Amino acid sequence: EPLHPIPHPPRWPVVGNLLQIPKSRMAQYFLEVSRNYDGIFELDFGGFTTPFVSSAALAEELSDETRFRKVVRPPLSLLRDIVGDGLFTAKSDEPNWGKAHRILMPAFSQRAMKGYFDAMLEVASQLCTRWESHPGEDILVADDMTRLTLDTISLAGFGYRFHSFESRQLHPFLGAMVRVLAANMAKLTQLPMFNRLRRDPADYYADIDTMNALVDEVIRARRENPTGDNDLLNLMLTAEDPDTGETLDDLNIRHQVLTFLVAGHETTSGLLTFTLYFLLRNPHVLAQAYAEVDRLLPGDTVPEYRDLAQLDVIERVLKESLRLWPTAPAFMVAPYEDTIIGGRYRIRRNQGVSVHLPALHRDPAVWSDPEVFDIDRFLPENEAKIHPHGYKPFGNGQRACIGRQFALTEAKLALALILQRFALSDPHDYQLEIKETLTLKPDNFRIRARRRQPHD
Ligand code: HEM
User: Fold this and answer.
1) Exposure string for 139-166, b = 16+ CB within 10 A, e = fewer
2) Which of 173, 401, 406, 437 is catalytic?
3) Which of the residues 152, 267, 273, 439 is marked catalytic?
């Protein structure tokens, strides 16, 4: 087959497609553009072009780790100011990636999840207590899910308590984080030359200082009160890499703590917020979820770790929610050598290619009625037939999400407790509006919750 240029929407000299790309809804725009193309298109961000892939067939090629590997390019590379060579933003060939990966993997095994259960339960119970003590009030779902996931990763991973549910305001760490992410995303839609000339404003650095101060506080608290647990923080502070015998250096420990605080909560709070949105939109699915919880955890039965494996409806709700709105919407890879994908598109060595997950997860060749929220797609007999590269909410290969089990365990438990305790309503007839930072979440979604009565 002859080579074809990668198709693209009309573009202008110098600015390329920059003028068309809406700053605050880039991922949603890429999804819209993908609908006009057959699995691949290219956008020009004022001099650097990026192909976007949205078909399972092409995602399969990009997932071949002998040909492609993760690359850290904008927007991810912009975060290296903050999280440096932490696991998420480390380049694939940086020795610190392999070292931290080997040291930290044991903290994410299935067995380790059992060890985090009490912390997860403690924080999820705090959420329920807060909802119970403010009956009839509007709940800003994304904010409370952020309190839940931030407190959970910090307590389970670092033994550190944020006490977010005791406070009306979100922790200053979060304000700083959101502003830093937003400032970096904004740079994507500006001319690269302009970005090079412009200095970040002083409050950008003040925000980074706020974030670093918290990390130092977390580490200081542990050094003052050492524990014997093999939690994430102790592994970072003391464990030796089985290959090199080295421990993580101090700067890298900072980068990892910050990485886990950020990567460990944003995406999961988005997932929980979307999931509640989908449940309220789909009353028959909500009824199924209630029935499951009432059967497995009747009354106020306190869940145990082993109950989570039984929560099959809730698990499918989470998976389907991550299909339609994967909260980390893209990842980027580049080939080791010049190569050709789809038999016709040339990709040069080191050219970054983005796998756009909301579009991939709607690939009509893989998903029937892709816009329909249908948890039966993930019944075992159906799930086994899904294209192995048609669903990648946690990324690919060795750079895939290390916190996947953690996120699913935490989210299942929180949903189970919420459904066990509360009748939920959507008094404002919410229309989905997605807020994009690096991640996606429903913006300004408000619900009400009241304690369930025996007849509910
Ligand atoms: C990597 C998604 C929760 C920690 C990734 C990647 C994706 C992802 C797509 C790959 C990124 C890339 O290739 O550039 C998600 C989603 C989550 C979630 C959708 C929740 C629903 C978590 C949690 C943690 C975590 C709870 C920590 C406790 C990480 C880390 C990496 C990563 C450290 C980098 C792994 C490496 O390259 O070695 N995640 N994640 N994530 N995630 Fe998650």
Assistant:
1) bebbbbbbbbbbbbbbbbbbbbebebbe
2) 401
3) 267
